[in-house]
Design a protein that fits this description.
- InterPro entries: L-lactate/malate_DH (IPR001557), Lactate/malate_DH_C (IPR022383), Lactate/malate_DH_N (IPR001236), Lactate_DH/Glyco_Ohase_4_C (IPR015955), Malate_DH_type3 (IPR011275), NAD(P)-bd_dom_sf (IPR036291).
- Catalyzes the reversible oxidation of malate to oxaloacetate.
- Residues 154-310 form the Lactate/malate dehydrogenase C-terminal domain.
- Its EC number is 1.1.1.37.
- By secondary structure, this protein is of the alpha/beta class.
- It has helices at residues 12-24, 39-48, 51-54, 99-116, 129-140, 152-167, 206-217, 219-227, 234-248, 293-312; strands at 4-8, 29-34, 59-64, 80-83, 121-124, 147-149, 174-175, 178-180, 186-188, 194-195, 198-199, 254-262, 268-279, 282-287.
- The strands form four sheets. It has a six-stranded parallel sheet with strand order 3-2-1-4-5-6, with helices on both faces.
- β12 (254-262) and β13 form a beta hairpin.
- α1 packs across α9 (234-248) and α4 (99-116) packs parallel to α5.
- Bound molecules: nicotinamide-adenine-dinucleotide.
- The site of nicotinamide-adenine-dinucleotide has 36 residues, from α1, β2 and α4.
Length: 316
């Protein structure tokens, strides 16, 4: 049987993720769901009508779901479910301002995933993503390796883009890495940033690197401020779709994701942005690599910052 992936939430993030997943042409079916009547079906119809132009056979199915889980039968047998349901930020809002409202949504979605797609790998993107990932794991009761969040692939891609633009080099010559949480305690890892194999620190002065780090940390807010309504979705959907592809293809790719950390880096019991190997079982393993003392201190600080908030989501 061909692979099946579901995207919950047919807003900007969800619809562009569904489009990217369909265009990969590796899935038999992409299911797109939302609580809005007709919208997912309309988007699915539209994407399917692009198949002969873009040259893919994957079929997209759009389903509207009800308050008591009506419609969720459509996700049965999904290998991967990407959760994008929830409100995005408005200008001036922090991701944390979304905590309570999105917690209600993500809990309801997660309970239905547990019921209708009990073997799926779940990738959470709804914000605040570190907390929503912890909540989705609690509400599904899935093993922790089967629930993880998207942040690091996006933050790393933003950082990579800024470095490439600053040095006027192709993005593919840049290797960058960000760990930590998706927010104020994002931890860029300069010791792992190179351009054509040369350390970034030899190519740019420390102040310039710090400027790019700050811009990366505020990367989402910069887009939100320009759009005025809604938040970024092209780069975010590229990140989530790539992660779903890695799972579907059991690729073993190592990417930064929001994963359950259990002893790595001396940190335990928290969902945190670390590098992990992705495969059909979700997180095959968290990959611990060398960090400088200050990078490690930053990661530990990020862990403590998200730990308390993640404990709170149990009551939301
Ligand atoms: N992790 C990241 O890196 C990252 C990046 C960008 C955006 N986000 C987050 O992704 C989420 C979605 O962003 P967006 O731009 O698509 O927003 P959007 O407003 O365009 O879409 C959200 C969709 O979720 C739907 N929805 C609400 N409750 C639902 C439910 N119970 N079941 C199914 N669908 C439901 C809404 O009807 C809406 O269509 C936001 O929380 C945003 O903050 C995360």
């Amino acid at each position: 049987m061909g692979k099946k992936v579901t995207v919950v939430g047919a807003g900007f993030y969800g619809s562009t993720t569904a489009q990217r997943l369909a265009e990969y042409d590796i899935f038999e079916t992409v299911v797109l769901t939302d609580i809005i009547d007709g919208k997912p079906a309309g988007l699915a119809l539209d994407i399917n009508q692009s198949r002969s132009i873009e040259g893919f056979e994957t079929k997209v199915v759009g389903v509207s779901t009800g308050p008591n889980g009506e419609g969720y039968e459509a996700i049965e047998g999904s290998d991967v479910v990407v959760v994008t349901a929830g409100l995005p930020r408005k200008p001036g809002m922090s991701r944390m301002d979304l905590l309570e409202v999105n917690a209600k949504i993500v809990r309801q979605v997660a309970e239905n995933i547990a019921k209708y797609a009990p073997n799926a790998v779940v990738i959470v993107v709804s914000n605040p993503v570190d907390e929503m990932t912890a909540l989705a794991q609690l509400a599904t009761q899935f093993p922790k390796n089967r629930v993880f969040g998207q942040a690091g692939v996006l933050d790393t891609a933003r950082f990579t883009n800024f470095i490439a633009e600053e040095l006027n080099v192709p993005v593919k010559s840049v290797k960058a890495l960000t760990l930590g949480s998706h927010g104020d305690t994002m931890v860029p890892v300069p010791s792992r940033c190179t351009v054509d194999g040369k350390p970034l620190s030899e190519l740019l002065p420390a102040e310039k690197i710090e400027e790019l780090v700050v811009r990366t940390r505020n990367g989402g807010a910069e887009v939100v401020a320009l759009l005025k309504t809604g938040s970024a979705y092209y780069a975010p959907s590229a990140a989530a779709a790539r992660m779903a592809k890695a799972v579907a293809e059991d690729s073993g790719e190592v990417v930064p994701v929001c994963a359950w950390v259990d002893g790595e880096y001396g940190i335990s019991g928290v969902y945190l942005g670390v590098e992990a190997e992705l495969g059909a079982t979700g997180i095959r393993k968290v990959v611990e690599d060398k960090l400088t003392d200050s990078e490690l201190a930053g990661l530990k600080e990020a862990a403590e910052a998200v730990r308390a908030k993640q404990a709170d989501v149990a009551d939301l």
